[in-house]
Amino acid sequence: EPEVTQTPSHQVTQMGQEVILRCVPISNHLYFYWYRQILGQKVEFLVSFYNNEISEKSEIFDDQFSVERPDGSNFTLKIRSTKLEDSAMYFCASGRGQPQHFGDGTRLSIL
Amino acid sequence: AQKVTQAQTEISVVEKEDVTLDCVYETRDTTYYLFWYKQPPSGELVFLIRRNSFDEQNEISGRYSWNFQKSTSSFNFTITASQVVDSAVYFCALSEAGHNQGGKLIFGQGTELSVKP
Predict the structure, then answer these.
(1) Is B92 helix (H, G, I), strand (E, B) or coil?
(2) Hey, is the C-beta of A68 within 8 angstroms of any chain B C-beta?
(3) What is the pLDDT of residues A26-72, one digit of tens each?
(4) Cβ–Cβ of A99/B110 closer than 8 Å?
(5) Which region among A104-108, B21-25, B58-62 has the lowest average model confidence (pLDDT)?
(6) Which of A42, A109, B1, B80 is the most exposed place for a label (fewest CB within 10 A)?
């Protein structure tokens, strides 16, 4: 069964550094998403992407964040200048509508 | 505004007990989807079920069953004869269908289920 693939599984970065989280969605899916889960908390929506543009974003998704689908297969989330509070699990998801299929997540640790 | 409430933060049961996880949602839309996801200790999110707002039939899948009641805005999840492998955090989520069917998921806080042998 096709899967959403996320790399790396764990990323450790110094505060203030840029980080790029990578995702390969399921190939025939049309909608792409990033979610965040701070340790012990609920999963929060960050951004959705459809037809090569952002379709919706949350308040969390400020100017430090950006998304890209650079080559038709990858879907990336960039955090420009990381802060301690960006430490979380980041999930990529894709779908052809509902339901959304989630990757296994990237645990981002900011030091 | 959309909101999902899972009032039970933690539940602990002994193996073979039945357990029900509660989910109450709020939405102004008439068309929406409800979901349950399981997050085992390994951290991934595993899709369990989707239900659309026009289908109030209860569903059973093996030991899992779901009770959708629009009148009370609830979508409860029951595990029959629980097993240790059911230990996980369970999230209820809501999506308003929107024009493109790709609406974001709004998650509840999750219920941590611990099944003891």
Answers:
(1) strand
(2) no
(3) 988 989 999 999 998 999 999 999 888 999 999 999 999 999 998 87
(4) no
(5) B58-62
(6) B1
